[in-house]
């Protein structure tokens, strides 16, 4: 875990990272930033770290695998292998380590490495319980794959220290194949899949193995596409239900027709239920307006009112009319009241 000072932590926060904080020099766990005052970056005796993001696979939660740009040469990491967890140090010149990190099989601690391996196993219906952590990749960095030795080339004499050193952990081609297949299974987007397979043709797989990887990629892309379609379909249904409710409650034709602005990206078939609901509401609003317009008896009664009392008795009926016709009726009321107060020719009586 990299410890940050206040300036580094603030810069990381501005870059979109999740920051955690604790009192410096104390043996306590880091806590979320919202548990500290906003001025904590400028305060002394506090230290910070970047909160690692988590992911879930097969209902098992673990931190997202560490990526090459997050590591420093010599930093301790844990490589997830099918049969164990290998504890080693990051070396950008070591071919197997670089591939493992780039493909998403490296963690910063043993516990999350075990959880990741258990998630891989559970996704295939296997329960992995006993997981051994051992040292690995302690040999010299390999920039390229070892080529076959020439038969006539004499082997160099081994030193005493080399003869008694621990045997190197070699990764078989079958193990590498399984690592790639597991990596594809864990991907959540097409971009992640392409990143996982960026160097697959340099590994040395045969035609059948490459075909197996291709099939796994295509199956995963179909799975991701189905998940995306399901998500988009749910979003469409939720928005449609909301718009149908607004169409039913629209009080004016303008308010009803304005709802179509939310459907510009929809197909004609998707838009049809809303269009039908808008047409239905427009017909209801037009019927209301026409009904009010076809009530000349109310206007006649306003114009024929003999006094203020009769005119005031008509006000409740006017307020019950459609909002679009009320202003017109109230105009007749004001005109008749003026006539009653001032006479037909405007002279005060």
Structural summary, described in words:
This protein has 349 residues and is α+β, with helices and mostly antiparallel strands. It has four domains: 1-51, no CATH class; 53-144 and 168-205, no CATH class; 226-278, no CATH class; 295-342. It contains 13 helices and nine strands. The chain has helices at residues 6-14, 95-102, 110-123, 160-163, 173-186, 190-196, 207-249, 253-257, 268-293, 296-303, 308-313, 315-319, 326-342, and strands at 19-23, 31-32, 46-50, 54-57, 60-63, 76-80, 85-89, 106-107, 133-135. The strands form three sheets. The chain has a four-stranded mixed β-sheet with strand order 8-6-7-9. Strands 2-1-3 form a three-stranded antiparallel β-sheet. A hairpin with a 7-residue loop joins strand 1 and strand 2 (31-32). The longest helix has 43 residues, at 207-249. The chain is elongated, with a radius of gyration of 38 Å. The chain starts with 5 loop residues before the first helix and ends in a 7-residue tail after the last helix. Mean pLDDT is 79; it is low at 142-152, 160-166 and 289-295.
């Amino acid at each position: 875990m990299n410890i940050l000072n206040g300036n580094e932590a603030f810069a990381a926060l501005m870059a979109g990272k999740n920051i955690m904080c604790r009192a410096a020099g104390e043996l306590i766990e880091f806590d979320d930033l919202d548990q500290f005052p906003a001025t904590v970056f400028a305060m002394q005796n506090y230290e910070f770290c970047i909160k690692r993001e988590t992911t879930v696979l097969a209902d098992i939660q673990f931190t997202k695998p560490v990526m090459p740009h997050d590591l420093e040469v010599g930093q301790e990491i844990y490589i997830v292998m099918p049969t164990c967890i290998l504890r080693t140090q990051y070396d950008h010149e070591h071919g197997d380590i670089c591939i493992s990190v780039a493909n998403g099989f490296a963690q910063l601690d043993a516990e999350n490495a075990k959880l990741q391996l258990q998630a891989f196993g559970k996704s295939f219906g296997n329960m992995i319980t006993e997981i051994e952590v051992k040292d690995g990749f302690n040999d010299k960095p390999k920039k390229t794959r070892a080529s076959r030795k020439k038969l006539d080339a004499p082997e160099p004499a081994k030193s005493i220290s080399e003869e008694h050193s621990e045997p190197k952990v070699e990764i078989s081609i079958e193990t590498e194949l399984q690592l790639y297949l597991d990596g594809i299974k864990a991907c959540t987007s097409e971009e992640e899949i392409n990143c996982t397979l960026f160097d697959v043709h340099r590994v040395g797989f045969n035609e059948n193995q490459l075909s197996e990887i291709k099939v796994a990629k295509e199956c995963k892309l179909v799975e991701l596409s189905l998940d995306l379609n399901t998500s988009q379909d749910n979003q469409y249904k939720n928005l449609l239900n909301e718009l149908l409710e607004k169409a039913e409650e629209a009080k004016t034709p303008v308010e009803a027709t304005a709802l179509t602005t939310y459907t510009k990206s929809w197909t004609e078939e998707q838009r049809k239920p809303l269009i039908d609901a808008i047409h239905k509401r427009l017909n209801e609003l037009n019927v209301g307006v026409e009904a009010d317009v076809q009530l000349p008896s109310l206007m006649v009664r306003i114009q024929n009112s003999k006094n203020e009392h009769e005119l005031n008795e008509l006000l409740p009926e006017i307020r019950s009319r459609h909002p679009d016709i009320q202003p017109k009726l109230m105009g007749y009321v004001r005109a008749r009241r003026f006539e009653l107060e001032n006479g037909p020719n405007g002279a005060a009586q």
